Amino acid sequence: GAGVSQSPSNKVTEKGKDVELRCDPISGHTALYWYRQSLGQGLEFLIYFQGNSAPDKSGLPSDRFSAERTGGSVSTLTIQRTQQEDSAVYLCASSLGDSRHQPQHFGDGTRLSIL
Amino acid sequence: GQNIDQPTEMTATEGAIVQINCTYQTSGFNGLFWYQQHAGEAPTFLSYNVLDGLEEKGRFSSFLSRSKGYSYLLLKELQMKDSASYLCAVAGSGGSYIPTFGRGTSLIVHP
Description:
- The complex is a heterodimer.
- Chain A is mainly beta.
- Chain A is built from no helices and 10 strands.
- In chain A, the strands form 2 sheets. In chain A, strands 2, 4, 5, 8, 9 and 10 form a 6-stranded mixed β-sheet that branches. Chain A has a 4-stranded antiparallel β-sheet with strand order 1-3-7-6, with no helix packed on it.
- In chain A, strand 6 and strand 7 (75-79) form a beta hairpin.
- Chain A starts with a strand and ends with a strand.
- The N and C termini of chain B lie far apart (41 Å).
- By secondary structure, chain B is an all-beta fold.
- In chain B, strands 2, 4, 5, 9, 10 and 11 form a 6-stranded mixed β-sheet that branches.
- Chain B contains no helices and 11 strands.
- At the A-B interface, strand 5 and strand 9 of A face strand 5 and strand 10 of B.
């Protein structure tokens, strides 16, 4: 059984470029989350998708960040005009239904470095 | 809002017992999770508590007191492989169950 898959595992890009990060959740998981984790920091919530409901975008730090989830499965997080402070590990997680009692299953993350 | 506090770092000896505390202040409560994260790897689920008391699972146990806003993770018979970061996360309230994570506790187990 495949777990949550994220790609690329590492991304190095120049400041000002756009990047796309991909997340393939566990089959059948309706909830999908994006977090970012900076060195020595906790997981910072970015965005949450649940089924066909409108996503909760309350954690997106600026309008340079956006995400979509096509067909209720694969999700793409896009960062436009990247800045050095965007450097972090971006983690995707999925779960069965809402997270009230369902544990999240995390991917290995994308390590993003902005030069 | 949600505020979750954990110690930044702890050290312990192989074979010993260690208790990692987590305190939280939230506007609502729908359960508390503990995750383990080895360096460079994804967090993995350890435990979930929604009612007061102790949940035991092998060498790991987790305790919750909702009235005190307090939880702990107890690791027994420590092994070197238990060296990792331990994340406390509280499931949200107000119709959204998005977990809020603490900064994690880095546990170093030495021989």
